[in-house]
Design brief:
The protein has two helices and three strands, in the order βββαα. It is an alpha+beta fold. Strands 1-2-3 form a three-stranded antiparallel sheet.
Length: 104
C-alpha cells in the first residue's frame, strides 16, 4: 500500500453542498494545488462550520503575526527580542486555545 500523503501549496478551492440519500446533508470541498492536483472531500455541516471558523481565526492570527514581525524588523529590534516576542504570542495562543477547549 502506497503512502498518498503529500504537502501541497493550495492555490484555490471550491465549496458546494448536497444531500446524500444515506449520508444526509454534506458540504463538499475541492482544493486545487499549483501543480494541478485536486483534492476532494465532504464534511457534515457542523464540521464545515467549525473548519470555516478555524480558518478565519488562523488567517487573522497569521496576519497579526506577520504585522508584528514586520514592525519589529522595521524598528530594528534584535533577533533575540523578536524571537521572544513571537514565542510569547504563540504561547498565549496555546493557553487561550486550551482554556477555550476546557470550558466546552
Amino acid at each position: 500500500m502506497s503512502d498518498s500523503r503529500k504537502i501541497l501549496d493550495l492555490v484555490s478551492f471550491d465549496v458546494d453542498h448536497g444531500l446524500g440519500e444515506v449520508s444526509g446533508p454534506f458540504v463538499g470541498v475541492r482544493a486545487y494545488s499549483g501543480s494541478g492536483d485536486v483534492l476532494y472531500g465532504q464534511l457534515p455541516p457542523e464540521l464545515a462550520r467549525q473548519l470555516a471558523n478555524d480558518l478565519f481565526a488562523s488567517a487573522a492570527r497569521s496576519e497579526y503575526e506577520s504585522d508584528l514581525y514586520s514592525e519589529l524588523i522595521e524598528i530594528k529590534m534584535p533577533d533575540e527580542g523578536i524571537a521572544m516576542m513571537m514565542l510569547a504570542v504563540r504561547k498565549g495562543e496555546v493557553r487561550r486555545h486550551l482554556n477555550i477547549k476546557e470550558q466546552t
